[in-house]
Design a protein that fits this description.
This protein has 199 residues and is mainly α. It has a single domain, classed as Rhomboid-like (Rhomboid-like fold), CATH 1.20.1540.10. Helix 2 runs antiparallel to helix 6 and helix 7 crosses helix 8. The radius of gyration is 17 Å and the shape is globular.
Length: 199
């Protein structure tokens, strides 16, 4: 029983997502380098012309592709720190829905922005999905039983810190971050209402 409990403790959706991202990254490195644009595209990075040509699966696959070790490590640290709260609150299924929809939402906004500006760039990473998870902390700040531990000012400041680097670093996709956050807020609201209704 103790061993099964220990396995259950480590076999969380957050840990599985981290493992998948790391495995994909290692394969990228062996395939020619994670910072190689051609490798990233071949592994499913977001590139508007290809998506518009019918490769819509890139809206999902791009969430698991990263450019360089720093990109991967920063995102996985954030996922480990934020994901455990969201997974514990919503449970594995709702949490995975929130994560995936947020990532897709971030990629959709990036796609729309690229098409509108005709400035096609290759983009990838889990940051859109992670920004979507931040919506859970906004919910915590609104709930009577949790708002003391998660004051709104602190939550909004944390969101600002995540978004701020994109204001000066043009290699960071602000559209992915904003799209993920907006989708996360909407999805969190729906998931919470359905959870309350069922309970």
């Amino acid at each position: 029983m103790e061993n099964s409990d220990r396995y259950r403790q480590y076999l969380t959706v957050t840990n599985v997502l981290i493992a998948v991202n790391v495995i994909v990254f290692v394969i990228e490195e062996f395939a020619g380098g994670s910072e190689n644009t051609e490798v990233a595209v071949s592994f499913g990075a977001l590139y508007a012309p290809y998506v518009l040509a019918g490769e819509w699966w890139r809206l999902v696959s791009a969430m698991f592709v990263h450019f360089g070790m720093e990109h991967l490590v920063m995102n996985m640290i954030s996922l480990a720190a934020i994901g455990r709260y969201a997974e514990e609150f919503f449970g594995p299924v709702r949490y995975l829905i929130l994560y995936m929809l947020s990532g897709i939402g971030g990629n959709v906004l990036t796609l729309v922005s690229d098409v509108h500006s005709s400035a096609y760039a290759v983009s990838a990473g889990a940051s859109g999905a992670i920004c979507g998870l931040m919506a859970v902390f906004i919910l915590f700040a609104l709930l009577p039983g949790l708002r003391r531990a998660f004051p709104m000012r602190r939550v909004l400041f944390a969101i600002f810190l995540i978004l701020a680097p994109g204001l000066t670093d043009h290699t960071i996709s602000m559209t992915a971050h904003l799209g993920g956050l907006i989708t996360g807020i909407l999805t969190t609201g729906v998931l919470y209402l359905t959870m309350r209704h069922r309970s």
